[in-house]
Write a structure and sequence with these properties.
Blueprint (H helix, E strand, L loop, with lengths): L2 H13 L3 E3 H8 L3 H12 L5 E13 L1 H9 L2 H8 L5 E2 H7 L3 H10 L3 E4 L7 E4 L7 H10 L8 H9 L3 E13 L16 H6 L26 H15 L14 H4 L31 H13 L7
Antiparallel strand pairs: 1-6, 2-6, 3-5, 4-5
Length: 309
Amino acid sequence: MAAMNIAEQILLLLAGSDAVDSLNVAEILKSDHQRVVGAIKSLQTLDNVICCEQRSVKQWELTDEGKAVLEKGSHEAAVFNAVPVHGISHAQLMKIVPNAKVGFSKAMQSGWVVIDKTCDGGPKVMRKVATIEDTVQQTLRIIQDLSANSVNDKVKTEYKKRNLLQEVVVKSLYVTKGSAFHTSIEKPETDLTPEMIASGSWKSKKFKEYNFDAMGVTPSGGHLHPLLKVRTQFRNIFLEMGFTEMPTNNYVESSFWNFDALFQPQQHPARDAHDTFFVSEPALSENFPAAYLERIKKVHSVGGYGSQG
């Protein structure tokens, strides 16, 4: 059943009553509750056709074990079906039937089987009736079909203790008629087209209101410049080789660290005034490690490490 058909049927149900609940609508239409909720929300986009509020109700639903019973039958029915006409030993029955302990207890309680403890070789389980009716499976099918209200509360409580049912809180939508309620669905237009203007059909059309609070399209982020990418790659290469970065927050550096420590010749063009700005205050820098200063001076004056000085 298409979502639009569900929406139309909701309007027809609402036309015959003051209000409807989404859970009741799902039961009447034999449809999934979430599909009904989706159809109601689509009706909310129409101008004042319906009004709705959210409500919370308790509802019974099958557990995983309950779903298995619904598909394959109850534990007591499994025990009964495992007992042949001539009977079976109690120990063997406990081995071949899943959940045999619970199933055997319930089968005994229902009067389906009987145990004979006087047999040779240990207790023997015999059928007490020829056929059975699996009421547990039938009841779970009724609850699965959204008809839990027709099941006795005592039965539901018992099934809950057996971990076949669980009570959950389900949120539903309570729907009432709006000020512009009608049973026909007319989807509002979202765009004013040149064809509408040329034919004049826009005069009879309903247009969807603009939502100025809606989020716009998220702009795509910026990207690194190719040169910055290459610089980052080379930086990582040197860091992986064991180099460390020097502090780069010294905007003014002494010529010792800038030139001498790098073994630049005294006549190098970078030392010229047109390539380097020298400050007058302070004019000199004297705070250097003495031993390191002496090694630098020796290389510049007499050479070393392959340099002639």
